[in-house]
Design goal:
Blueprint lengths: L6 H18 L1 H33 L6 H14 L11
Helix pairs in contact: 2-3
């Protein structure tokens, strides 16, 4: 039983459901959020890569495939994706 004059105990009792939901059970959603963040990072990297290549090719640059692949991997890693090999299509 919570003492009605104990403001701290009342506050803790009031916020307990939020704490359980957002702290104790937060790890359950974290894997799904990580996967979503990774997918967003990869799509963002693809867009950056497209614009980078578009700029280079429109300027008349001649590129070899090894340099293009390395540039893609660098952009993916800079965007926060863990393993660029999984995004190679």
């Amino acid at each position: 039983m919570v003492d009605p004059k104990d403001a701290r105990a009342i506050d803790i009792k009031y916020h307990l459901p939020c704490w359980v939901k957002h702290v104790q059970r937060s790890h359950q959603d974290s894997q799904a959020e990580l996967e979503e963040d990774k997918a967003i990072s990869i799509v963002s990297a693809d867009i950056k890569f497209y614009y980078f290549m578009n700029t280079l090719l429109n300027s008349g640059a001649i590129l070899n495939i090894a340099d293009v692949h390395q540039a893609y991997e660098d952009i993916v890693i800079a965007n926060g994706a863990e393993d660029p090999a999984i995004t190679v299509r």
